[in-house]
């Protein structure tokens, strides 16, 4: 039995290695003057793997990651990243259907977006509009930047992300970009493991990562932003951010929080239902507007409903 997504390790970062599948499992190997050194990876219990610069991976290794539902995040130089989300083929569509119904209904989509903003505040006055919530969120982040800058002795901070001028950015911005990249990967893996669609966002829109950004924003103020400011004097802010973040995610058990928060955001009435594990065989049902879900793999040619004149 594979671990549930809520029990998985958060992420693993690798760079300048070749990831291969051998007779024992998946390993990261590197050639040294003493020969080839190998480190085996706990594939079945990893939520996502961040593939840094200089990393290559073989097709058999990719197939193994796919079977285990591990998300791969390619993190290039300058913080440029891409995602390879893997959804187990036998995963049920329960939570995808909850998400799609909420997203397709404008009124329900608004309610989900409001819930996402309200999650970040201790209290919100009744009747606050979405535009007002956006303004409150912007003020909250600016105040957080100012408070953390004062705490860590930074005269002035401005959030900047410029891949074309990556190496000239200050340590806080470098650490924040690296930490956010890891957070996006973890959230993406949780979304895929639940069978949801990363492109159907409720606050963000127009990107295949819209829902990832929606959920990741729930945690930045408590995790990646304070961590980045604490690394203002680091000589290797990106590396230190990943190391500290992984330990923090382990301590606060982030993966179970992500799963339960996604459930509470898109379908509070169903929150707490377990995420169905991938089944050994495909389970396909037929949809009927009056009868609901009908068993698949059944010949309905003998039903009276099929007796229609031609």
TrEMBL record:
Gene name linked to the record: cas1e
Cofactors that this protein relies on: Mg(2+); Mn(2+)
Source organism: Herbidospora solisilvae
Quaternary structure and partners: Homodimer, forms a heterotetramer with a Cas2 homodimer.
The UniProt record lists the keyword Heme: no
EC number: 3.1.-.-
Entries under InterPro entries matching the protein: Cas1, CRISPR-assoc_Cas1, CRISPR-assoc_Cas1_C, CRISPR-assoc_Cas1_ECOLI, CRISPR-assoc_Cas1_N
UniProt function note: CRISPR (clustered regularly interspaced short palindromic repeat), is an adaptive immune system that provides protection against mobile genetic elements (viruses, transposable elements and conjugative plasmids). CRISPR clusters contain spacers, sequences complementary to antecedent mobile elements, and target invading nucleic acids. CRISPR clusters are transcribed and processed into CRISPR RNA (crRNA). Acts as a dsDNA endonuclease. Involved in the integration of spacer DNA into the CRISPR cassette.
Record's keyword annotation contains Transmembrane: no
Pfam families (alphabetical): Cas_Cas1
Family statement drawn from the similarity comment of this UniProt entry: Belongs to the CRISPR-associated endonuclease Cas1 family.
Protein's name in the database: CRISPR-associated endonuclease Cas1
């Amino acid at each position: 039995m594979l671990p549930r997504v809520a029990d998985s390790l958060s992420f693993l970062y690798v760079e300048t290695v070749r990831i291969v599948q051998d007779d024992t499992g998946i390993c990261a190997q590197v050639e040294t003057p003493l020969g080839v050194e190998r480190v085996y990876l706990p594939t079945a219990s990893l939520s996502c793997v961040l593939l840094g610069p200089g990393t290559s991976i073989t097709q058999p290794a990719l197939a193994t990651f796919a079977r285990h539902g591990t998300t791969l995040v390619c993190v290039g130089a300058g913080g440029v990243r891409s995602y390879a989300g893997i959804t187990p083929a036998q995963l049920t569509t329960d939570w995808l259907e909850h998400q799609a119904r909420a997203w397709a209904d404008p009124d329900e989509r608004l309610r989900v977006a409001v819930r996402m903003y309200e999650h970040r505040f201790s209290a919100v006055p009744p009747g606050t509009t979405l535009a007002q919530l956006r303004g409150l969120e912007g003020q909250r982040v600016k105040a957080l930047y100012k408070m953390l800058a004062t705490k860590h002795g930074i005269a002035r901070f401005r959030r900047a992300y410029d891949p074309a001028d990556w190496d000239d950015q200050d340590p806080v911005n470098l650490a924040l970009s690296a930490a956010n990249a890891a957070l996006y990967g973890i959230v993406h893996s949780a979304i895929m493991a639940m069978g949801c669609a990363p492109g159907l966002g409720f606050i963000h829109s127009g990107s295949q990562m819209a829902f990832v950004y929606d959920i990741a924003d729930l945690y930045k103020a408590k995790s990646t932003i304070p961590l980045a400011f604490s690394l203002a004097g680091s000589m290797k802010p990106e590396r230190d951010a990943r190391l500290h973040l992984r330990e923090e995610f382990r301590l606060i058990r982030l993966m179970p929080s992500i799963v339960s928060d996604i459930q509470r955001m898109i379908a509070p009435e169903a929150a707490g239902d377990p995420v169905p594990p991938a089944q050994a065989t495909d389970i396909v049902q037929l949809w009927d507007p009056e009868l609901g879900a009908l068993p698949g793999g059944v010949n309905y040619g003998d039903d009276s409903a099929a007796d229609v004149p031609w």
